[in-house]
Amino acid sequence: MNQFKMPFNVSYLMYMSLGILMVALLAYTQHVEFEPGMSSKLQQQPSLNTELLQELSDDLAHYNIEHDVDFSHAVLRLTSEELLFASGQADLPEKQQTALQNISLVLEKNLICYANGQQVVANSHCQKPQQVNLKSIIIEGHTDNVPVSVTTSAKDNMELSAKRARAVYEKIVKSTLRDLKNNISETLFTIAAYGDSQPLNHYSQPTPDAKNRRIDIRFVFL
């Protein structure tokens, strides 16, 4: 039986074409890798997120407001004793007012530079318009795992955490912050309630841990 053989000229042309294709792909890859300004938005995003969170953290430290920053999840966690809620309570004591006012000032100063373009241009302290826009900023309320008592104004921990988030929202989201929108004209700030479902410290029994009765501020980017 005769074995089929590809003509020499056809085989040669196929190998030559494959070689040219490989050279072209290599050249394109090198071009993309080294040409300035070709980094994707996905690659740029983490550094810009970190930049905003670091600016907020630095300014909060200036006002001596204790906090933690979770850069990987873009969360600013308020940890000052004066900003932690009493067990079963959603009311804000008078001693919290100054700290909340300062948080509002810090947010207003920095967030305007990351909102939509028109607002950035209108503010001279923003050195340059940022290449990333905020989609939303979520004020998140949390509780410990102690069930609410009959004297509490909320029916359960989920409702209690919603009341806490709302109370902080009302104190820090004022005037300019309330008017900030993302680039699709949605209001930036909103609230979320998690009850005792996302504790910092985990317990198998009801435990009145003040660190779990907290407010987180989460930043979501487009």
Protein topology:
Layout: H1 8-34, H2 41-62, E1 67-70, E2 75-78, H3 97-111, H4 117-121, E3 134-141, H5 157-172, H6 175-179, E4 189-193, E5 215-221
Parallel strand pairs: 3-4
Antiparallel strand pairs: 1-2, 2-5, 3-5
Helix pairs in contact: 2-3
Question: Can you summarize this structure?
Answer:
The chain has helices spanning 8-34, 41-62, 97-111, 117-121, 157-172, 175-179; strands at residues 67-70, 75-78, 134-141, 189-193, 215-221. With 222 residues, the protein is α+β, with helices and mostly antiparallel strands. β1 and β2 form a beta hairpin.
Structure description:
It is a single chain. The protein is α+β, with helices and mostly antiparallel strands and 222 residues long. The protein has one domain: 60s Ribosomal Protein L30, Chain: A. It has six helices and five strands. It has helices spanning 8-34, 41-62, 97-111, 117-121, 157-172, 175-179; strands at 67-70, 75-78, 134-141, 189-193, 215-221. The chain has a five-stranded mixed beta sheet with strand order 1-2-5-3-4. Strand 1 (67-70) and strand 2 form a beta hairpin. The longest helix is centred in the N-terminal third of the chain and has 27 residues, at 8-34. The N and C termini lie far apart (66 Å).
Structural class, judged by helices and strands?
Answer: alpha+beta
Query: What do the pLDDT scores average to?
Result: 78
CATH class membership: Alpha Beta
Strand content: 5-15%
**What is the H level of CATH, i.e. the homologous superfamily?**
OmpA-like domain
